[in-house]
């Protein structure tokens, strides 16, 4: 295993939770645990919609769009390039496939065809709520639709979904993970910390996931799935990522024997997707 450190000068702060919403949650906690619990459960599964930035518009205009039904939900695929060497990209929570606007063209230039996934309840797909396992379903359905996938590239919670997709039978030659959590319980802890919630709510959310998705939620965690994984991997994470701490990447790298870790400086959680050095590292890894 290798570990590299790349340094850049800029930083992107995390999205701040509105003070009014924090006050609302605090008020609910004083009224009733059950009222507050239902609200935070709803929020946990609800991505925040964002308007499309200008920087992503060229990718939207140049790519080929397809809508795909996964179960009873819609996902959006956008494809750039034409090649038998195919790459899939899945975004993170509250993201969209067009966040690969810098990565995709560089890979197309290197001879690949890139298909991006916009997951359920994200972008302009219908619905308000989703979860990581639906991201996994989206990856598996997209891979079946496009054919043999050479490399899967995944950001943030999409990275956790990517590990579950491989555990579910997806066969890829390489896996690239960007700014992703490696523990489900740590995702819950971070969410509750941001809303100033005490341990009762952490326990409530963890138990809700156990009751409704998996009796052992940490069995779905990348750091545990990685122990059984032999596919070559590239992990890129920024030391100033305040959405997902870089310790998550170190834990993942420790358990993933065939992985390479690159730690960047000053890119934060989202700019890591468009940094020229990161993009070139991805291209080099995919082509190696």
Automatic annotation (TrEMBL):
<protein>
    <submittedName>
        <fullName>Alpha/beta hydrolase</fullName>
    </submittedName>
</protein>
<dbReference type="InterPro" id="IPR029058">
    <property type="entry name" value="AB_hydrolase_fold"/>
</dbReference>
<keyword id="KW-0378">Hydrolase</keyword>
<dbReference type="InterPro" id="IPR000073">
    <property type="entry name" value="AB_hydrolase_1"/>
</dbReference>
<dbReference type="Pfam" id="PF12697">
    <property type="entry name" value="Abhydrolase_6"/>
</dbReference>
<feature type="domain" description="AB hydrolase-1">
    <location>
        <begin position="87"/>
        <end position="279"/>
    </location>
</feature>
<dbReference type="GO" id="GO:0016787">
    <property type="term" value="F:hydrolase activity"/>
</dbReference>
